[in-house]
């Protein structure tokens, strides 16, 4: 006898969403478009435009390499895992994110936040890695 498709899909979903040891925080209202990508030696260079809608946030995460970012529009509020405010960066400002530094980016403004980001990562690394919510309340 064949199982209904809904039953099979539910079972598959249950397997795919089993909890992991780290409870990462998902982002909300964030989109990204890769504009360019190149690997030189053992380093990946990726240029990406990221848009965070008003009230949106990246979720807690870190990067395996250095990021260089430019705020094209809006304002980014940037917090570290110790809950401290690392910076508030408005349009025209640039900033750098250090490797392995857990952080969250938030758009507390009323207009979309647009970032141009250069990722400088070890070859084959993901653009970001999820991190557990440190309990900051945002």
Strand tally is 10
Helix content: under 10%
Shape: globular
SSE order: HEEEEEEEEEE
Biggest sheet: strand arrangement: 1-2-9-4-7
β-sheet strand percentage: over 45%
Q: Tell me about the biggest sheet?
A: 5 strands, antiparallel
Q: Helical element count?
A: 1
For the residues shown, what is the average pLDDT? 87
**Euclidean distance between termini CA atoms:** 49 Å
The helix-and-strand class reads mainly beta
| Radius of gyration (Å) | 17 Å
Poorly predicted residue ranges: 1-23
Could you walk me through the main structural features you see in this protein, from its secondary elements to its overall organization?
- The chain is mostly beta strands and 138 residues long.
- Helices cover 9% and strands 51% of the residues.
- It has one helix spanning 5-16, and strands at residues 28-40, 43-57, 61-62, 66-73, 75-80, 85-90, 94-97, 103-106, 113-122, 129-130.
- The strands form three sheets. Strands 1-2-9-4-7 form a five-stranded antiparallel sheet, with no helix packed on it.
- The longest helix has 12 residues, at 5-16.
- The radius of gyration is 17 Å and the shape is globular.
- The protein starts with a helix and ends in an 8-residue tail after the last strand.
């Amino acid at each position: 006898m064949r199982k209904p498709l809904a039953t099979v899909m539910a079972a598959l979903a249950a397997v795919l969403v089993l909890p992991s040891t780290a409870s990462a925080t998902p982002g909300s209202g964030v989109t990204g478009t890769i504009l360019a990508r190149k690997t030189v030696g053992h380093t990946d260079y990726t240029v990406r435009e990221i848009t965070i809608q008003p009230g949106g946030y990246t979720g807690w995460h870190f990067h395996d390499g250095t990021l260089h970012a430019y705020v094209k529009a809006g304002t980014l509020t940037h917090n570290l895992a110790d809950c401290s405010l690392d910076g508030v960066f408005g349009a025209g400002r640039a900033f750098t994110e250090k490797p392995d530094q857990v952080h969250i980016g938030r758009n507390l403004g009323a207009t979309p936040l647009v970032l141009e980001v250069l990722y400088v990562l070890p070859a084959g690394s993901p653009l970001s890695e999820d991190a557990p919510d440190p309990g900051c309340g945002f």
